[in-house]
Amino acid sequence: MTGLKWWQRVVLVVCLCALALPLWFAARNVHRFVDGHRTITEGYVHCDMEDDRCTGTWRLPGGQRGRGQIAGLGFEYDEEQVTGIRLYAGRDWAVTDRSDLAFRAASEVIGAAIGAALTVSVAWFKSR
User: Fold this and answer.
1) How much is the pTM?
2) What DSSP character marks residue 92?
3) Distance between CA 118 and CA 66 in Å, rounded?
4) Which residue among 15, 30, 79, 126 has its CA within the 20 to 30 Å range from the CA of 111?
């Protein structure tokens, strides 16, 4: 990397630091995968047609109540007023399928690894 100009080194360091962001998201999803609980919704969910986001409430073990966005639900759950939807949830997040968390974490780690390899290889070729 000694053949790089000073500004190219700065760009390299910034790009490598930016690749830490997907790793942070992957760590968050792994934590959720391990730390979440199986539960069901309480009452009805509310879904916005415009941005396809659904929110609701659920009960966690120990009597805690969770509330927030539920990933993986479609507008039909709100439209048909479905109750008792099975979730995998924490205090302020929920997903309908636990495996989505593992898939997202894996794809974020793979994306960061590919990005790091691409960034380092471009820097290596530029330094020659």
Assistant:
1) 0.79
2) S
3) 41
4) 126
Sort strands 37-47 and 86-89 into parallel, antiparallel or unpaired. antiparallel
Q: Which helix (DSSP H) or strand (DSSP E) does residue 105 occupy?
A: helix 99-126
Evaluate whether 94 touches 66 at the Cβ level (below 8 Å).
Answer: yes
Query: Whole-angstrom Cα distance, residue 58 to residue 34?
Result: 18
3-class DSSP state for residue 91? coil
As given in the structure block, the two tokens for residue 8 are 């190219």
Q: DSSP per residue over 24-88, as a string?
A: HHHHHHHHHHHH-EEEEEEEEEEE-TTT--EEEEEE-GGG-EEEEEEET--HHHHHTT----EEE
Provide the pairing of β-strand 54-59 with 86-89. Answer: unpaired
The tens digit of pLDDT for each residue in 20-65 reads: 999 999 999 999 999 999 999 998 889 887 777 889 999 998 889 9
